[in-house]
Predict the structure.
Amino acid sequence: MADTKISTQSLADLKNTTDDALGNYLRGLDFKQDNTKIDVRLAIGYASVLIAAATFAADYKLGWEVTKTWTAVAVVAYALLNGAFTYWMWAVEKGCVFDGAREGKKISISTKTKKYDPTYYLTISLADSDSIDIKSPFTTWFTSDGYFVAQPFQQWLASSIEAIGDVDGKNALRDQRDDLAAPTAGVAVLPEGNGTAEASGVDSKAKGSKRSKRKG
């Protein structure tokens, strides 16, 4: 169990903590992360900050009359960079939290949440097959007091995504693929909208995928 406690009322905290755990888990399985998309996003962001800082410094030292033409240019450049940043986030990255490969097999995972819905949604894109969509409530791996439990999260991923299950066999036993593990009996789960923990689902666009359920 993780030592860091988060607010169970914050979807952003639940998602960010889970996103971090997902990346750490895959890197621990020797998936090599490709940081190209992240590097481009950071470059655009840093360029925007540098333009803003340089414009402020020039105006402060030289005055408005001397720098107004360059300030206008900087404002346009800043706006263009922010537009590029937004486009990159929504059209290129599309919520991607892990993009990498293992032994030449590429995998890209995007995640999202929906307002007022404590469910973790994943889209997994593989180089040699169609993408699949899976989902599960955060209650599967978070305790009611906000602690992350790694094992049920890893079992869910390994049992739902064949590319991961093939690497992490101990968390993807065949008899568990249709009956994913939930937190152990000593671990409480988050109450959801109706006061109960909903079953986790697995939706797949790939042929032959199965729907999984939580133990009741």
